[in-house]
Design brief:
2 copies of one chain form a homodimer. By secondary structure, chain A is α/β, with parallel strands linked by helices. The first copy, chain A, is about 40% helix and about 15% strand.
Chain lengths: ~375, ~375
C-alpha cells in the first residue's frame, strides 16, 4: 500500500477503467448470473453494513431472512417451519457443502460415509469431497442425460448416507427424476438433497408436470439460488432442509456474539444480500417471475429454431433456458465466436457441445446477432 | 410468494421499517464489523453484478483483485508473487478453512492429520474440525492469554501438519508469539497459519515491535479481513499463502466456465467486494489507516482510564483496540447495559469479562456515555 491515499476522483476514474475491461453481460451467453434487479441493488446498498453472522444485532434483517425462507417454503411445498430450517448462503456451493455436512453429522454412526451424485452434478461436489474426505460416487446418465436410476441403485451400499438429484443440470438444464430418487431414498432410509440452484427459480414458474421439491416425501434438503434466476445480488444462495433438526446438525457454539450458535459456513454474512433477495422476491411476485421465465423460454425457442435453420441441432430438447448446440468441432467454434465476435459461450463435457444459458439479459435481438455470427463461425 | 408483486414504494417502506429494527452501530461495542467507508460502498455498487467465480468474464475486476493482493503482499512482507498466492474470500472463516484445507492437501501422505491451535482461537476452527474431520488440538494459554509454547510443543506428534497462531485474538486482542511459533514450525517442518483477521489491518499501522507476517520464515499462510478494520464492505476476507504452490493445492477443475480452475471455497464470488476493498485501500493509504488505528487506540485509552476511575481494571493491558473489563458478575452487568441502556457488549469465556471492541464507529463521546451507564450497571 502506498503512504498517501488517492483522491476519490482518482479512484473513481480508475474504477471506471477497470469496469470497461469487464465484459458486458450483453455478450455473455455462458453465465448463470445476470444483472440484478434495480430494487435488489437498492435494498442491498441500504443494508450494506448489516452482518447476519451476528443476527442479534440486526433483528430487522433477520426478520427479512425469515420471510424469504417462508417464501421459499411456499414455493417448494415445505411443511415444517421453513423459517427454522435453513438460511441464505453465499451461493450453490455453500448450500451443497452444508447439505452434505448435515447428512454426515446426522449419520455420525457411519465412519466412512459415501454419497451418490450424478456424473452431471456441479463441480461444487468435488469441493465437498476434497474438503470433507467423504466419498462421492458418480452415477452414469441415461441417453437423455438424466441420472440413471439403475446406476444409482448399484452404487448404494451400507455406508451410503445420501443421494443428490439435480433439478436443472448446469450443463444441459436437464431434470433428474427426483420422484424416483425420492422413492429410492425412502426405501433405503437415506437422505436426498436436490440441487435446484438454477432450476429452483425457473421450474415453479413454468407449466411443467414435474415434481422435485418437498412435496416428495424423500426430499430432505434443497439448494435454490436467488442470485441466479431470481435477480438478486451476489452473494445470495438458499438452503432449506425438510426438518429443522437437519439444519440444527450444522450448529457450532459461538462465544462473544449476540447469539450463542451459528449454522452458516461463513461467519460474517451479508445482510445486504438478504434484504436484496427479500426485495426482489416481494417486488416481482409469482407473476413477475413467470414473465421473466416465459421471456427467457421464448428467447430459448428462438435460438433453437434459428440454429435449426443453420442445420444445427441440440443435444437434448431444452427443458429450461439452457441450450446445448450440437456443433462439430465445438471448441474451435467457441474460440471463433469469442475471438472474432466477442461472444462468450461455454462447452459441455460429454458430448462436447456449445452451451448457451438464456439469462434475462439475453434478448431476441441478441440472439439474432448471435445467430448471424454462429453461421459464420460454423462455416 | 404472493401472486402479485408489491410496488417499489411498498417495498422501500417495508425495508425502512426493517432497517429501523436493526441496531445502529453507535451502541454496538461487541462487533468487529462497522460502517464501510463511503468509497467502498460506491465501488461495491458499481461492480455489484461482477462475479469473480468466472474471472475470465471480468478481467477488470480480476485485475483489481491482483492489485489488492499486491498491497497485502507489501503490508505483510510477502516475497514470492502475492498476486498468484491468494484471493479475496468471504471472510476470516473461509480463509481459515482454506488455509487448513491447503495444508491437508499438501500433506496427503498423512492419513490422520492434526493441527494445533490456541485455546483462544476463533470458533471457525470448530467448523474446520466438523467439516474436514481433521483433528484440532487446543494448546493452553500463558498468564497473558498468549498461546503457551510448551503446550504447543507437547501436542505435536508425527501426524501434526501445522500450527495456527493468532495476531489479535477475537476475545482479548492478544498477540501470540508468532516468531517463536515460526521457529517451532521450521524445526518440525510443518505449516504455520497466522490468523490476523482482525490484527492484519491494525498491527501494521501501530508502532509495535512485533513480527507476525511473512518476514518470519516459518509463516506459510495468513488470514487478513478487509471487512473488519479496513472499512471495506461485507463479504471481504483475505487469504495469502507464502508460496503459490500452497494456493494451488486448492485447485478444483471447472468445466463450463471462462477458466478451467477454481481455488475459492464458494463458486459465485462478489466482484463488488473486490472493487470495494481496492477502492478503500487505495483511498486511505497507509496514512489513512494510521489515522483510523490511532483514533481507535486513543478511544481505547479513554475507555481504560475511565473504567479505572470506576475501580474497574482490565484482564490484560489492551494491545489492540479490544478491551476486556474485569467486572464482577460480568453476565449480569452485560444484561443491565443492554436492557437498561441499549449497549451491546459481549463476554469473554475465560475469565468472564466485559469485552469491548473499539471500532471506528466508537467515538470519545460514545465512551463518555457508556462509562456513565457502566457506573450505574456495576453499582
Amino acid at each position: 500500500m502506498e503512504e498517501n491515499g488517492k483522491t476519490k476522483e482518482e479512484i473513481l476514474a480508475f474504477l471506471k477503467k477497470a469496469k470497461a475491461a469487464d465484459t458486458n453481460y450483453e455478450r455473455v451467453l455462458s453465465s448463470m448470473c445476470t444483472y440484478p434487479h434495480e430494487i435488489a441493488v437498492l435494498a442491498h446498498t441500504q443494508f450494506i453494513e448489516s452482518n447476519m453472522g451476528d443476527p442479534g444485532l440486526f433483528p430487522g434483517t433477520f426478520d427479512l431472512e425469515r420471510q424469504v425462507l417462508v417464501m421459499f417454503g411456499k414455493m417448494l411445498h415445505h411443511k415444517n417451519c421453513p423459517e427454522k430450517a435453513g438460511y441464505l448462503t453465499t451461493g450453490g456451493t455453500e448450500s451443497n457443502i452444508q447439505a452434505i455436512r448435515s447428512m454426515k453429522n446426522f449419520r455420525h454412526d457411519i465412519p466412512k460415509p459415501n454419497i451418490i451424485i450424478a456424473r452431471s452434478a456441479h463441480f461444487s461436489f468435488d469441493k465437498v469431497a476434497n474438503l470433507s474426505g467423504i466419498e462421492i460416487r458418480k452415477a452414469s446418465l441415461d441417453n437423455l442425460l438424466k441420472v440413471d436410476l439403475d446406476s444409482v441403485r448399484s452404487l448404494i451400499d451400507e455406508n451410503t448416507i445420501g443421494l443428490v438429484g439435480i433439478a436443472g443440470t448446469t450443463e444441459f438444464g436437464q431434470l433428474d427424476p427426483i420422484d424416483e430418487l425420492s422413492e429410492l431414498a425412502i426405501e433405503k432410509n437415506i437422505f436426498l438433497h436436490v440441487d435446484a440452484a438454477f432450476g429452483g427459480f425457473v421450474i415453479p414458474f413454468m407449466d411443467l408436470d414435474y415434481s422435485y421439491d418437498f412435496k416428495l416425501e424423500g426430499v430432505t434438503s434443497m439448494t435454490i439460488d436467488p442470485h441466479k434466476m431470481a435477480l438478486s445480488t451476489i452473494p445470495s444462495g438458499g438452503l432449506l432442509f425438510k426438518e429443522p433438526e437437519y439444519f440444527e446438525c450444522l450448529e457450532i457454539h459461538t462465544p462473544y456474539l449476540s447469539v450463542n450458535k451459528q449454522y452458516s459456513l461463513t461467519g460474517t454474512r451479508s445482510g445486504g444480500a438478504v434484504a436484496s433477495t427479500y426485495a426482489v422476491m416481494k417486488h416481482l411476485g409469482r407473476k413477475g417471475y413467470k414473465k421473466v421465465v416465459s421471456d427467457c423460454m421464448s428467447v430459448t425457442k428462438k435460438l433453437v429454431e434459428g440454429a435449426d435453420k443453420l442445420g444445427i441441432g441440440t443435444v437434448i430438447d431444452p427443458v429450461l433456458n439452457i441450450v446445448a448446440l450440437d456443433v462439430p468441432e465445438a471448441d474451435l467454434v467457441r474460440k471463433k465466436l469469442l475471438d472474432e465476435h466477442g461472444w462468450h459461450v461455454s462447452i459441455t463435457r460429454d458430448p462436447r457441445a456449445l452451451r448457451i444459458v438464456i439469462m434475462p439479459h439475453i434478448k431476441n435481438e441478441t440472439i439474432e446477432l448471435f445467430l448471424k455470427d454462429l453461421a459464420k463461425a460454423v462455416k
